[in-house]
Structures are given as structure tokens and as C-alpha cells.
User: Fold this.
Amino acid sequence: MTDLRPSPTIEDYLGVIYTLDRNGERVISARLAQSLDVSAPTVTATLKRMQRDGWVVVNGQKEIELTPAGRSAAMNVIRRHMLTEWMLARMLKLPLSEVHREAHQIEHSLSPEVAERLQVELEDPRFCPHGNPLPGFEEEAEGWVALSSLSQGEAAIVRRIQENLEEDYAILTFLESKGVVPGAQFQVIEVLPFNETIKLSIEGKDLILGLRLASDIFVSRVA
Ligand SMILES: [Zn+2]
Ligand SMILES: [Zn+2]
Assistant:
């Protein structure tokens, strides 16, 4: 079974499992239900099929782990997704807030040949337009820190808007409209832990973010 390309539903599960795992989250079925916006019984039934077909195993702590075949299929679909995002961003000039959901519709039907062509045409990108690493390039993001961990006065560059935020159109539109996109430099004006906010100066304007949102945005400090 595992030599076949998984169905779009299974590909979505594989992608989410891979992403949660690399972001250091515990991969359990309740978390999958939340990420995929489906019911717990649906996740249970799908995971059964995935175990039967050799994509995942569930360990003693009820954690879901990818098998080598599952891991390879997950990396494959995420790569196709990210290449499609670049295609939409570069060629069609779609905004960051839209490329994720549009790419999500297209990624499953992209042939290996077209994916290969895109990879070459886009000159082997290591990150998606939101700054999330393509599978295999995780190490390149290791030096980045959460925006919420910065102190007053520090300057940094936005690098990564984490995958879970890509799903949220309202947040992405907000961030993009305020200039919080990969490559943008900013300075921390004030951190108010009791208020759970961080105030930045970005694009010549002040911007207040909640610390929780800021914990899913990664940056590199400017010396
Ligand atoms: Zn995406
Ligand atoms: Zn992306």
C-alpha cells in the first residue's frame, strides 16, 4: 500500500503530524482534531486506516509517529505545498494571507514532474513565503527565537510566521498590513508581561502585539 500516493485527506494528516512534531508539540489525536478542524471520531477512524496502511504508528503514550514511508510522504506533500505557495506569490503576486489556502487546494494534484520544474524554476527555496522551512532545511531555522522572548530595545528581523498562523486568514491579513512579514526589521519599544503585550516599531509605526501571537512569530536578532 505504501508505494501508492496517499489520498488528499491522508496527505493533510501526514503534513500536520510532521509539522506539529518538528515544532516540538506532542502529536496526539486531540491535537490533530484541532489542527485539521475535524471531530475526534473522524480522527480516530482515519488514524486506524493510516496505521493499517503503514503511514503511522501510535506509541504507548498515545503519541502518533510517522513511519519512514509516512515521513517521506509528509515531506513530499509539504514540499509541494510550499513550492505552490511560491508559485502563487511570485507569479500571481497573491498576498501572503492568501497563498496558503490557495496552495492547499492545488498541492494534492501537483505531479512530481511539475513539482520538480517548480523547484528548479524557483531556485531551490529553503523556506516558504511565510518563512517556514522546507522539509530537510529545519536546521536553518534553529538560530531564530520567538518574538515574544525579545527585550526592550532589541532590534531583530522577522523570519518566520509559524505554520499554525498560516491557517488563520484574519491574523495573516493583520500581520501583512502592519508589515510583519519575513525580512522586515523592527525594534522592541516595550514589553509588558502583566499586560501580555509587546510593542514594536516597524515600518516607521508603533505596533502592539499580544505575547501569545508573538510566540508563534520567529525572528533573528540584529547585533
Ligand atoms: Zn502554507
Ligand atoms: Zn507558507
About this structure: The mean pLDDT is 95. The pocket of zinc ion (ligand 2) is lined by residues 82, 85, 100, 128-130, 132, 166 (CB under 6 Å).
